[in-house]
Amino acid sequence: MSEIKRFQTEKTANIAAQGRDPKMVQTGVDFVVDTAKYKYSYNFSWMGRPIIQFPQDMVAMQELIWAVRPEIIVETGIAHGGSLIYYASLLELMGGDAFVLGVDIDIREHNRAEIEKHPMAKRIQMLQGSAVDEDVARQVREIVGNRKALVVLDSNHTHEHVLRELDLYSPLVKAGSYLVVFDTVVEDMPDACFADRPWGKGDNPKTAVREFLARNDRFVVDLEIQNKLLITVAPEGYLKCIKD
Q1: How far apart are alpha carbons 172 and 151 in whole angstroms?
Q2: How many domains would you assign to the chain?
Q3: What pLDDT was estimated at residue 19?
Q4: Amino acid 84: pLDDT
Q5: How far is Cα 212 from Cα 90, in angstroms, rounded to an integer?
Q6: Contact between residue 20 and residue 53 where contact means Cβ atoms under 8 Å apart
Q7: What is the pTM of this model?
Q8: pLDDT per residue over 50-77, tens digit each?
Q9: Beta strands, E only, 29-162
Q10: Sign of the CA dihedral running 63, 177, 219, 199
Q11: Domain that holds residue 56
Q12: What is the CATH number of the domain that holds 145?
């Protein structure tokens, strides 16, 4: 066995083992819960823009983007634009003409201005409107066309909204690519964490993913990713497309 193969085999075994360790898995959830009161995910930026994501999940996204080599990344939910810029910068490093399409119901002018003047703006397009609006979804489909797409859902986190996004945007993803649903961890957190939000236990991205997968055989949860990360806001949210 070559050293490269040996390293990969050992890594795969370690990832599987820690994913089977309930204490390790719970420690990851506890970290998410305990740091939520400090808005931990708000503390990081990428190339000058707040990214509002866990660093662990962003490393996982880098691995997926490198492996999939998408021609377009569609993300619902823009906020400050840090994740758009992050994905665009990875595509820039990889070369080619790939770009990022961000969709948000409210792109605030100060955020839009910062995104549009950023060096990575050349690889970013934005659409303002609800991701579950039929006209917005139609525009997204037209922009994607026949390009290889990777889709990220990170807007309204209610069950109904996410399930509708899954139905609208999953057809854009083909075999070998991914549909990533963030904040599925809401299902694993106390309701008190979301007292001022319309989502919570029983009504969140994870419940939507589970309903979606129960009637869609094109996607499976890539457990290796969450087992590797342990600290993630997207348990059961990394969905791999296994058939066109």
Answers
A1: 8
A2: 1
A3: 95
A4: 98
A5: 30
A6: no
A7: 0.96
A8: 999 999 999 999 999 999 999 999 999 9
A9: 45-46, 49-50, 72-76, 99-104, 124-128, 149-153
A10: positive
A11: 3-241
A12: 3.40.50.150
